[in-house]
Amino acid sequence: MDEFSFIDSIMQKYYRQSSIIKGIGDDAAVVRPVNGFDMITASDTMVEDIHFRLATMTPYHIGYRVLAANISDLAAMGCDPAYYMVSIVIPKDWSKQQLQEIYAGMQDHAREHQMDLIGGDTVSGHQFVVTVTVYGYVPKGYARYRSQAREGDYVFATGYLGDSAYGLHLLLERGKSTDNPFIKRHQMPQPRVPFAQALQPLKRVCLNDISDGIASEANEIAQASGIDIEINFGDLPVRPEIKDHTLKDHKKWVLSGGEDFELLGTVSEDDWPRIQAAAEQTNTKVTKIGTVKPSTENPCVILCSDGRREKLSKSGYVHLQ
Ligand SMILES: Nc1ncnc2c1ncn2[C@@H]1O[C@H](COP(=O)(O)OP(=O)(O)OP(=O)(O)O)[C@@H](O)[C@H]1O
Ligand SMILES: Cc1ncc(C[n+]2csc(CCOP(=O)(O)O)c2C)c(N)n1
Ligand SMILES: [Mg+2]
Ligand SMILES: [Mg+2]
Ligand SMILES: [Mg+2]
Fold first, then answer.
1. Pocket test residue of 43, 210, 221 for ligand 1, highest count of atoms within 8 A of CB
2. Does residue 131 lie in a domain region?
3. What is the DSSP string of 231-293?
4. What are the φ/ψ torsions at residue 56 (nearest 5 degrees)?
């Protein structure tokens, strides 16, 4: 199978998004911007031995997970997903079947969000790398920025924290298994698109998705908004199976394990009931985990735990260290 027959094999038979004028098949894709909406775009990459090993993910999971990481950034902007592009570097020892499974993972996840594959690039190389770029729409002026936190806001998180890191721990310790819920959370994360969409009528809500761990993402919000964030460790949504572990691992997974692809947000106290209503409407767990304080000198995150207050600095996975 050469590059061209491979592209033919992954092309969609039809597009779900009516704004696509030209998808795969020319020098570039053409979409007609939708009136009354701003277009949002984001890109995230997965590299073998950094984001996965063949011992932690099947090719299907790699496809599902790389699209999840991207869709999660769209959710964090409050946006409706629409299209995606895929650039892939394929080592010689990867089979045609493995490649098709990667695309099956992406296509199944794309279908859940009515997204269409509109282009990309295929090259051979020495290390497996896949980069996805996603596009979506948000009602004009309603993108959700990290800079939108304000003094007095409630800080909230969706879902549970630390599940994916615990799943990775189980995978590395025990090997592949399909029926463990933590492993499933690592391999097939579910971005919080319906919840973010349900928040669209709100005038202001600050959102960031949790890819590196809340220690990182809370600091990103503090810095972008010029405020301090206070988080109560005891209020963090953590499953009992994780709490049973030694405190050091448990704390690390919850605060800086990352890859949960939950949302961290802040909203005014007055709008908190609307967050709870959106959570109920979309069957999403949402927990108040802290509050936004006025900034002192340098915006920072304070973790309150057992009556002690400590500065929580950006931790988690950092590339180029
Ligand atoms: N190599 C790059 N060139 C241009 N812009 C970049 C590059 N890498 C990151 N960015 C931009 O920097 C900003 C932050 O990117 P970052 O990848 O940290 O966010 P994220 O996708 O939310 O986090 P994560 O990668 O952990 O999922 C985004 O605006 C992103 O587009
Ligand atoms: C085999 C294996 N080892 C370690 C990890 C952990 N890991 C890799 S990248 C990353 C942060 C998100 O990356 P990015 O910032 O690029 O989105 C994390 C937590 C993994 N998933 N698989
Ligand atoms: Mg990124
Ligand atoms: Mg993000
Ligand atoms: Mg991201």
1. 43
2. yes
3. EEGGGS---HHHHTS-HHHHHHHHHH------EEEEE-TTTHHHHHHHHHHTT--EEEEEEEE
4. -105, -20
Residue 317 lies in a domain: no
**What CATH number corresponds to the domain at position 106?**
3.30.1330.10
Write the pLDDT tens digit of every residue in 170-195.
Answer: 999 887 666 899 999 999 999 999 99
**Site of tokens 């579910």:** 190
Q: For ligand 1, is residue 217 a contact (CB within 6 Å)?
A: no
Q: Is the pTM of this model over 0.80?
A: yes
pLDDT by residue (tens digit) across 60-81? 999 999 999 999 999 999 999 9
Residue 265 in domain: yes
End-of-domain residue from the set 95, 121, 139: 139
Same domain, 66 and 45: yes
Look up the ipTM and state it.
0.96
From 217, 255, 317, the mutation candidate for ligand 2 (largest count of ligand atoms within 8 A of CB) is 317
Q: Count of domains in the chain?
A: 2
